[in-house]
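ok here's NAD-dependent protein deacylase, seq below lol
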Amino acid sequence: MEKKKLRRATEIIKNAEYPVVLTGAGISAESGVPTFRGKSGLWKKYDPEAAVSISGFKKDPEPFWDFAQELLLKNDIKPNPGHKALAELESSGIIKTIITQNIDFLHQRAGSQNVLELHGTLNKATCLKCRKKYDWEDLVPVIKAGNIPECDNCKSQKIKPDIVFFGERLPENALNQAWQAAKNSDLMIVIGTSLAVYPVASLPSLTKDNGGKLIYINAASGQQDYLFDLIIKGKAGEVLPEILRMID
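and the structure came out like this:
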């Protein structure tokens, strides 16, 4: 990490009135959450149509639960120093909103309060037949035992996590709030995403068009590097705690 860039990021953040954060899979990968694309991504092992499409789930939920077990239960997934630094920056009143593409609820487990989950969350689930609600922790013992969760009310095995499956629309309320946060922001910090998936990838442009600044923190280059005022190549779990230390 270049100290000069870290000092510049600290200066920009301290001078901003309404900083928001956009996070992607990269920040969670540091906690052991597998990524989806790339040589060792989950899509090399699982068929997305069978595992995470709404039509596939309604036909047979088993492939999804195999996928979910590997995503969050195979390793001991916990918030990393990057998640924790963002939570501290929020609790101190610096960061106003975290917009995330992640479904692993690690931001909330780290202590963040104002989180907009654009792809939903695995933390909650709903029976598609009778609409009974479940918490993730209620389902974990069943999944770990290699079984498909069954609704204790109607006996259906179609208990669907509250995530956005392929073939479903993004949650309108969260998306509208994200648009508004991006427009209101005079600084967006983009972390751990290549900005390849729309409409989420268009959010930084909303801040930029409003005269705001953009900071990019990621281990690799993204698809919109030309937009950013400052690019820091590195892991969020190393960069963010250092920025937090400099701000303090």
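fwiw The longest helix spans residues 3-15. kinda neat tbh
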